[in-house]
Prior knowledge:
The complex is a heterodimer.
Chain A: H1 23-49, H2 67-94, H3 97-102, H4 107-118, H5 132-156, H6 162-167, H7 171-198, H8 200-208
Chain B: H1 14-24, H2 27-44, H3 49-52, H4 55-75, E1 114-119, E2 127-128, H5 129-133, E3 138-145, E4 151-160, H6 161-167, E5 176-181, E6 186-190, H7 191-194, E7 200-205, E8 208-209, E9 219-221, E10 234-240
Parallel strand pairs in B: 1-10
Antiparallel strand pairs in B: 1-2, 3-4, 4-7, 5-6, 5-10, 7-8, 7-9
Amino acid sequence: MSSLAAGDPHGTTETTGKAVHPVWVRVCHWTNAAAMVVMVMSGWQIYNASPLFNFVFPPGVTLGGWLGGGLLWHFAAMWLLTVNGIVYVILGLATGRFRRKLSPLNASGVVTDARAALTGRLRHDDLSKYNQVQKLMYAGILIVGALVVLSGLSIWKPVQFQYLTALFGGYDTARYVHFFAMSAIVLFTILHTVMALLVPKSLRAMLIGR
Amino acid sequence: MKSPFRKAIVGVDKRLLVKDALHLLPQVSRRRFLAGGASLGALTLLTGCDVADGETAEKLLAHVSKFNDAVQAAIFNPNALAPTYPASAITRPFPFNAYYALADAPQIEAADWKLEIAGLVENKKPWTLDELTRLPQETQITRHICVEGWSAIGSWTGVRLGDFLKRIGADTRAKYVWFRCAEGYTTSIDMQTALHPQTQMTFGFDGQTLPVAYGFPMKVRIPTRLGFKNPKYVVSLDVTNDYKGGYWEDQGYNDYSGL
């Protein structure tokens, strides 16, 4: 298995000069990670009060102790997630990082790089350049992030944001959208963590910048 | 050693300086500063459930919830109308929901029941069900949304609470209307919500007299607020400037709870 995370498995490339991830990216990344952990665990607590499917989340992985506690955590961490998200998106656009890192992105490139990754032939000569699979994953998770926030707003304020709620197909459907967006984030996080552990240099770059 | 701090002020002990500075702070800010530090500490230990559910975290979360009340009241439109639905969208059967079983729900004789009026109101005469249902009524088909997440669409018939408050000479500049129910349940709503055109004293459900399951003889239907802010089996209404809390509000549900 090769890597989806930026890295140099052979340790042959010198990563000198500019930081791979500027400090604002690292601060936003770990702030978001902490906020997401709280949002997901408290969200599972809230889910358990009225499950959409034939299962509930074990109490050990939920936060808040009961529905009221879960709601308090969810709507406290919401602020951290929102403020951090706004800072991240503004800086990502203003510095040109999103454009630089995530484009160009094309289907044939993704297929080629995915095939190379799965057969262990994907090169990571430059830690600061994402391959096509990475670009797809990181652009995709930004879209899912927007989706989880918008569907969350539409079930939190279905009167104030009734047009948004209607856009998601109504209140009950928006709950499913919120759930599946959460699921996508959890799956992404698992994959992303596995990759970062397989290519520890990428984890180091997100911690100390290079 | 060439630490710039080392020789910042010759002859001053840093520890004593900090101690002196702390003494200069007023008692209250000092305590708040220390408590704030402890709360942040609790926040960083999210995975330790004992800490996350502990007293410090709880206090911090209660503060955030109060802050959220204020922010929501400030930014959201209190007069926004809840969407209405066609009769075909009504959920049948409409769920019964309470912290007790339906068999334990209050069984009220219409003849014995009166709506008591208290607080900042000119005419505190209690109202019988007959008197109330003779007032002009209207029907709304709106979505009831529970704090638990589920929702159901129902058809409610009754009297606008805002009209009733004006009729009895309530001081509509008061901050809250507080409801008490037959089984001891309580809840509080802000005056703007009480005066909202869709806030209703409900006596009928889906074309019939309000069934016991949904709050006979009177429920207060507020489609712009979560279900727990829609009290059933209401026995008294209190117009007040004091925040009196409620059954769930006191346990930690966000007081605003506006949809």
